[in-house]
Write a structure and sequence with these properties.
Helix content is 66%, strand content 6%. It is mainly alpha-helical. The longest helix has 32 residues. The radius of gyration is 21 Å and the shape is globular. The mean pLDDT is 89. This is Superoxide dismutase. It comes from uncultured Poseidoniia archaeon. GO terms for molecular function: nickel cation binding; superoxide dismutase activity.
């Protein structure tokens, strides 16, 4: 629904409204999975780089450059994962889903918190917990749609 109003400066303003951010109705947790996998991959690479360079090598320009690139990618992908999960949580899932998925809110809340933890830390444990949470959300999503879609990782 749109409505045109005149402002004080006689410039028309158009107001629009929609029931959600994505009226196309196309939702899929796959993009969250890919982002979570990237977080896990970068976390492992960061730990491997640290282990292979030791104290003396960690001051080199090459080490600092590579580590900073890995960290930037990890943080970007953790934020992408969080954004994708929040869209599913707030736009796809409806109150009626709570009847069949009583732990829906807690699962999403914990997953979003894990995205934040993965941005702030270099923790393989939290990266794996994020993957586990995204897998659980994958299963919730497809169950809500009445479909069985296997969990398949790209890595």
């Amino acid at each position: 629904m749109t409505d045109t109003k005149q402002t004080n400066d006689s410039i028309p303003t158009i107001e629009a409204s929609a029931h959600c951010d994505g009226p196309c109705g196309v939702y899929d947790p796959a993009s969250a999975r890919v982002a979570a996998e990237a977080v896990q991959s970068m976390t492992k690479k960061m730990n491997t780089l640290e282990a292979n360079h030791g104290d003396s090598g960690s001051n080199s320009a090459a080490y600092i450059n590579t580590m900073s690139r890995y960290a930037a990618i990890k943080e970007e992908e953790a934020q992408k994962c969080k954004d994708e999960l929040l869209v599913l949580w707030t736009d796809f899932f409806k109150p009626q889903h709570l009847e069949s998925i009583p732990n829906l809110h807690d699962t999403f809340w914990q997953a979003a918190k894990l995205c934040s933890a993965c941005k702030a830390e270099v923790s393989e444990q939290h990266a794996q917990e994020l993957m586990d949470a995204v897998e659980e959300i994958h299963n919730m999503f497809w169950a809500a749609k009445g479909r069985e879609v296997p969990w398949i990782r790209a890595s």
